[in-house]
Amino acid sequence: MKWYLAKLVFRIICGEGNHTAQFDEQLRLLYAENEMHAFQKARILGDSEEDSFLNNDKKPVHWKFIDVSEIHHLSELIDGTEIYSCIREEDNADEYVKITNKRANYLHERCLENTFEMS
After folding, report:
1. How many domains are there within the chain?
2. pLDDT value of position 119
3. Residues 11 and 68 in one domain
4. In the predicted model, is pLDDT for residue 50 greater than 90?
5. Which domain, by its residues, includes 11?
């Protein structure tokens, strides 16, 4: 058995779907015999997590599983091992750095709050 990282893609449709298309890309860790087994497990997982519900405005929301778009074998699970990388091109580098730092600060504050709540 080996570890794999799978990317599952879902489409989010609100109401009649008259809005900019939204997709949720999820990275999932899977333990499987081989790549095909990991792919099949990922598809089963995606199918099982399709959902429909009413949002706060009482409009229907549908999470439709599209498919598995990537499978990556992870040779080892070692502390600090890179499991995902994405190179992005941004028109405004300063804004991207600012947003990244803002998210990191928020995450740090949340972690600190959770640490103190557990104490």
Report:
1. 2
2. 61
3. yes
4. yes
5. 2-80
* Residue 3 structure tokens: 């570890």
Nearest CA to 10 out of 29, 28, 30, 35 is that of 28
pLDDT at residue 45 is higher than 80 = yes
Distance CA 8, CA 99 (A): 26
pLDDT at 43: 93
Round to whole Å and give the CA distance between 50 and 104: 30
- Whether residues 36 and 59 share a domain: the answer is yes
With the C-alpha atoms ordered 69, 71, 72, 77, is the resulting torsion angle positive or negative?
positive
Specify whether 76 is located in the same domain as 38: yes
SS3 content of the chain, % helix, strand, coil (to 5): 35, 35, 30
Q: Are residues 13 and 45 in the same domain?
A: yes
